[in-house]
Design brief:
- By secondary structure, this protein is an alpha+beta fold.
- 33% of the residues lie in helices and 21% in strands.
- The chain contains three helices and six strands.
- It has helices at 3-25, 50-71, 119-122, and strands spanning 36-38, 78-84, 92-97, 113-114, 130-136, 141-147.
- The chain has a six-stranded antiparallel beta sheet, with helices on one face.
- The radius of gyration is 16 Å and the shape is globular.
- The protein starts with a helix and ends with a strand.
Length: 149
C-alpha cells in the first residue's frame, strides 16, 4: 500500500470511528430503542481492498462491544447486535428494546442460523463472548453478531 493511500485511508477510518463514537454518545442509554443503529463505514471504503474490509468489520465489532457496555447497566431487556454484509457500507450496530412504536420486541432473528463458521469473522470476533449467525436470502448473506446468552 503506498504511503499516500495509507494516509488517506487511515484518516477515513479515524473519521468513521469518531462518527460512531459521536452517534453512541448522543443516545440516552436509559431510553427506549426502535432498532436504533449506526454504520461504521458510511462511504463503503471497506469494499475497496481486503484490508479495508477487515477494518470495517473490526470497527463493527468494536462498536458493538461499546454499545453493549453502554446499555449493560439496565435492568430491562435490551438487544444489541451487529450485522455484516458483503457491501461494508451496510454493516451496522443495532440497539433494540420495548418501544412505543409497536415494533416487534424482542427481535426474533427469524431465519438466522447461529454458531456458524466464518473464518473472516472468526479472526476478529471473540467467540468466547459473541456468536455468529447467518441469514441467507436470494441476493446475499447477512451475518449477525450478538453476545452469547
Amino acid at each position: 500500500m503506498d504511503r499516500r493511500y495509507k494516509k488517506r485511508i487511515d484518516r477515513y477510518w479515524s473519521k468513521m470511528e469518531k462518527q460512531c463514537a459521536d452517534a453512541l454518545s448522543r443516545i440516552d442509554p436509559n431510553d427506549w430503542f426502535d432498532l436504533w443503529h449506526t454504520h461504521p463505514d458510511w462511504d463503503g471504503k471497506g469494499n475497496a481492498r481486503p484490508e479495508n474490509r477487515k477494518r470495517a468489520i473490526e470497527l463493527t465489532f468494536q462498536f458493538l462491544v461499546k454499545a453493549e457496555a453502554l446499555i449493560n447497566h439496565r435492568n430491562t431487556e435490551v438487544q444489541c447486535f451487529a450485522i455484516v454484509k458483503e457491501d461494508t457500507m451496510d454493516n451496522s450496530i443495532y440497539i433494540h428494546s420495548e418501544n412505543p412504536n409497536s415494533s416487534e420486541f424482542p427481535f426474533k432473528y427469524d431465519g438466522v442460523t447461529w454458531n456458524i463458521e466464518n473464518k473472516e469473522l472468526e479472526s476478529i470476533i471473540n467467540l468466547n463472548t459473541h456468536q455468529i449467525g447467518v441469514f441467507h436470502s436470494d441476493d446475499e448473506q447477512t451475518y449477525f453478531i450478538r453476545k452469547v446468552a
